[in-house]
Amino acid sequence: MSQSERLVLATRYRLVSEIGQGANGTVWRGHDDLLDRAVAIKELRLPDDLSEDDRVVFYRRTLREARAPAQLRAHSIVEVYDVVIEQGRPWIVMELIEAPSLEQLIERDGPLPPERVGHIGRRLLDALGAAHQAGIVHRDLKPSNVLLDGDRVVLTDFGLAFSSGSASLTKTGHFMGSPAYVAPEVAAGEKATPRSDLWSLGATLYAALEGRPPFERDNVMATLSALANESTPPPQHAGALAPVITGLLEKNPTRRLSHARAVDRLERAASGPRSGRRPPTPRLRLMAVLALIGATVASCGIGATALIVGMMRESPGPSPTAPSTPPAKRDGGAAGDAAPAGAETSTFAVRARTGACRIFVSVPGATTTVLSDETLVKGDARRYAQPRINAVVYDASACDVWVRGHRQAAGAPGERKNYTVSAKPSGG
């Protein structure tokens, strides 16, 4: 048994055996003697040629950044239990997940089918969403940091790479992180942001589909040169995922897919192909109806123009600025007219007008609580009584919405609507 394997950290974490090594240290299988459970322990090391000042900065940032993910509670994020300083360096104690990484799976089986890659991408977006809302940027998302434990997809090594832009490049002289998966703006020396994590996600999913990341070359400098100067090669095996991959790999971060749009495109890809014809807008539907009426009355010898104009004057429809009216109680009326039971006393209520009614509902706060992230079956209703609600309706024509008991105006097909609702109006 080696000297390290006999080491016990903080009088409770005993190193059992080495699991693997990376650029920044060694991962050990360990045992928590106090709680009698298996753990993973990451021993962090730096190159020997670093100055003492650089080492101090590294240890301080590692300690601070390793504590942050410990506050996250998400199914797709590895759980961090503890951070200890032993033998003058930090050790990260984490949940032990005995499962292969995405990198190992690609090396063993080759490119993965789009359906599985879509599932992996959706779960990784969940992980990034939780982290970004907590102000944490991963900075080193890549296949080796993604574990596949059955259907569970787990993102590891949050904040541990210490690869936040120019400080790591100019101060230490080492490129910290993985050039094949780093966003172009970060490689150019800019600060890592949530948008740069989304680029890394795109490169990771690209590698899962194609067997290698889009700009990987024989060495670091060649990879960085390709990243800076070459166009992103289109994926050849992405199928319905192609719009997601190309959108995430947009080099300009302001044009890159946002988190919400990436989720939407992944879910559209997962739901299967859609008809190429777009549904007519309300204006086009009105014009078609008027044309039909005009043709009918003209064939009867009636002044079609006068009749149509008269109809438009008599039936102007609801004003877009008119206040919403309270919904009727459920009394057997049409599904689109009657309010779902309990809507009058709810902060927010929604009912599916069609099967395309997709919603995301959460409670804001120090930690966001997700209440719903689903597509409702036609006629299904959801009611929420929490004092504060944030909601997204992805197709405003497919859902009927009530806010504090008041029905909201319907939107156009494909129109996305965001709601931020409190139980009482401000000042009321």
From TrEMBL:
Gene Ontology terms, MF aspect: protein serine/threonine kinase activity
Protein family per UniProt: Belongs to the protein kinase superfamily. NEK Ser/Thr protein kinase family. NIMA subfamily.
Region spans: Disordered: 256-281, 315-340
UniProt key word Repeat: no
Protein name: non-specific serine/threonine protein kinase
Keywords, in A-Z order: ATP-binding, Kinase, Membrane, Nucleotide-binding, Transferase, Transmembrane, Transmembrane helix
The EC number(s) this enzyme carries: 2.7.11.1
Transmembrane segments: 284-312
